[in-house]
Amino acid sequence: GAVVSQHPSWVICKSGTSVKIECRSLDFQATTMFWYRQFPKQSLMLMATSNEGSKATYEQGVEKDKFLINHASLTLSTLTVTSAHPEDSSFYICSARSENQYNSPLHFGNGTRLTVT
Amino acid sequence: AQSVSQHNHHVILSEAASLELGCNYSYGGTVNLFWYVQYPGQHLQLLLKYFSGDPLVKGIKGFEAEFIKSKFSFNLRKPSVQWSDTAEYFCAVPADSWGKLQFGAGTQVVVTP
User: Fold this and answer.
1) Chain A interface test: which of B33, B38, B39, B44 (most A C-beta within 10 Å)
2) Which of B32, B44, B105 is nearest residue A103 as measured by Cβ atoms?
3) Which of A75, B64, B70, B96 has the most CB atoms lying inside 10 A of its own CB?
4) How far apart are CA B19 and CA A101, in angstroms?
5) Residue B95 forms contact with A (CB below 8 Å)
């Protein structure tokens, strides 16, 4: 089946530094990938829609200058958390669909646990 | 935009008990609905989906869900749960034409031996 790989699975960084998270579709091409954030005991909240070769579309309330998204190829999207602060500590999850239909199921990465100290 | 709501946030039950998790959607037009599961330490996985046709949808691991249009509901059921069904369950619906998903708040299910 379709596999989405996310790296790293966990990262600890100091406040003020930047962290890059990679999301790769291993056996399919993904024109569109989605980045979610999950707080403890809460649901997934969509942060942005990443489109290959164009600018990402951010959800309301998500700072585009803080959460930089680059979708440079059909198999790779990256999320960079810039100037991270403790409140950015969260679980970040990417997803992609292997079929080019809006209602086809999403395949999720394993997530990245970010801890900002 | 479409949205979903899940009624139960935490459910604790014993093995062999029956499970039903509620999910209500907000939109009255064409509806596509999903149930995802997240086992401890693992990524989200698709349990089942409804697009059209038979309102009773069979999924993996013995799960099923019934789409009831008159009640705007898409409840998830399993007749007899196992300890391995301990997980968090999310109902979801496409929120736009690009296919981004709107998730419900999730239901944490704990199955005790």
Assistant:
1) B44
2) B32
3) A75
4) 31
5) yes
Identify whether the C-beta of residue A114 lies closer than 8 Å to the C-beta of residue A86.
no
Which band of pLDDT confidence, cut at 50, 70 and 90, is reported for residue A21?
very high
Q: CB atoms < 10 A from the CB of A117, how many? A: 10
Chain B residues touching residue A43 (CB < 8 angstroms): 90, 103-106
CB atoms within 10 A of CB B34: 25
A68 and chain B: CB distance < 8 Å anywhere?
no
β-pairing verdict for A10-13 and A112-116: parallel
Angle at CA A22, nearest 5°, toward B47 and A4? 25
Sign for the pseudo-dihedral over CA of B40, B42, B43, B47: negative
Contact B63, B47 (CB under 8 A): yes
Supply A68's token pair. Answer: 């930089």
Lowest pLDDT segment from A26-30, B15-19, B29-33: B29-33
Read off the tokens for B20.
């039903």
Instruction: Search chain A and give the residue with CA nearest B104.
Output: A43
Mean pLDDT of A63-78: 93
End-to-end CA distance of chain A: 37
Nearest CA in chain B to A51: B98
Closest CA to B9 of A41, A72, A70: A41
Alpha-carbon distance of B74 to B23, in angstroms, equals: 5
Kindly determine whether residue A105 and residue B94, on different chains, have CB atoms separated by under 8 Å: no
